Amino acid sequence: MTTPLNRRTALHRMSCGAAAVLGWSAASLAKAQSTWPRQPVKVVVPFAAGGSTDVFARLLARHFTDVVGHPFVVDNRPGANGNLGASQVAAALPDGHTLLLSTTGPLSINKLLYRRMPYDPVTAFTPIALLADLPLVLAAHPSVPAKDLTQLIAWLKARPGDVSYSTAGNGSMGHLAAELVQRATGTSMIHVPYKGSAGALNDLIAGVVKLSFDLVPTYLQQIEAGKIRALAVLGTRRVSTLPGVPTLLESGIKASAVGWNGLVGPRGLPASIVAVLNKATNEFLASTEGRAQLQTFSMQPIGGKPEALSAFVRSEMDKWRPIVEPLASTIMQ
Question: Which of 42, 99, 205, 324 is 20 to 30 Å apart from 90, CA to CA?
């Protein structure tokens, strides 16, 4: 017969065994929790330095340093469409010294793109906060005769499969947004993927491609200079840096697409540490300084409880699955 004491002993052994499988012991984790932080906290960004996500991470790391009174440092780990850095965080000790600040891909879309993933974004991480959205824009070369989205759709339908558009790469948010727009409007275009936004933008300016789907911050300066034309923003609301550009919904297209940033830690991150980081994150996003800094990148702060991030990740996977799965075999060739 199993006694309460025996059950407690068995449960303790099971928890210790699970900890050992993940590469850390229950004793070492307990010690780490009680002294957090005892060393600089790494905020892993799974992309190269210089992008909007990297800059955002550095702003937030500086705020965390001020609040916690201990160094938070950004660690750029690009590779494998963000999976390299994300997998390193997934495998890290959940002691609060390794965090991940990532975008849509590593935290949701990549699960749909890759047949084999080094981690499951739904189960491998402890959510901390949904941070901000990253608006997308549909931009056109000045030679495109359409002045608005209605005219563009008519122009595209008269040229099925003839008009090319650029994105930052196969499987990027721009690529997926373009597929969503084509499905919603009954149009067909030629996708020209680049290795990053710089090439996609340069060839749009040069007229090599006629359209581009990409993040607003990358294209904003050239839009303001009149070198390219913004026809629509792809989120559910207008962007403060492009107030005169309508959304897809305003143009009668029932579709929306937006990139976003989220902050997570390894699975098993203690609730006490999550609470500190969530509170500090929401304070930064609500502050005048934080909102002003994000606005320079056309980013809209979100914030909220950790549970909101978990629910959002699942909803994004559900939303994009019908778009991504038919493309996955060709996207990842």
Answer: 324
* Backbone φ, ψ for residue 165 (5° rounding): -135, 150
Of the candidates 218, 202, 213, 217, the one whose C-alpha atom is nearest the C-alpha of residue 149 is: 213
| Residue 231 exposed, middle or buried by CB count within 10 Å (0-12, 13-18, 19+) | buried
Q: Write out pLDDT tens, residues 208-259.
A: 999 999 999 889 999 999 999 999 999 999 998 999 999 999 999 999 999 9
| CA separation for the pair 283, 277 (Å, rounded) | 10
Taking the complete model, does pTM exceed 0.90, yes or no? Answer: no
Domains annotated for the chain, with CATH where assigned, are 38-133+259-331 (3.40.190.150), 135-258 (3.40.190.10)
Residue with tokens 């914030």: 303
The pair phi, psi for residue 138, each rounded to 5°, is: -100, 110
Quick one: tokens of 289?
């300084």
CA-based nearest residue to 165, from 153, 180, 152, 178:
178
Check if the beta carbon of residue 57 is closer than 8 Å to that of residue 101: yes
In the block, tokens 């402890």 appear at 126
CB-based burial label for 326 (10 Å; 0-12, 13-18, 19+) = exposed
The 10s digit of each residue's pLDDT in 34-91 is 579 999 999 999 988 887 789 899 999 999 999 999 999 999 999 888 999 999 999 9
| 3-class DSSP state of 133 | strand
List the structure tokens of 269: 């991150």
For residue 120, the model assigns a pLDDT of 94
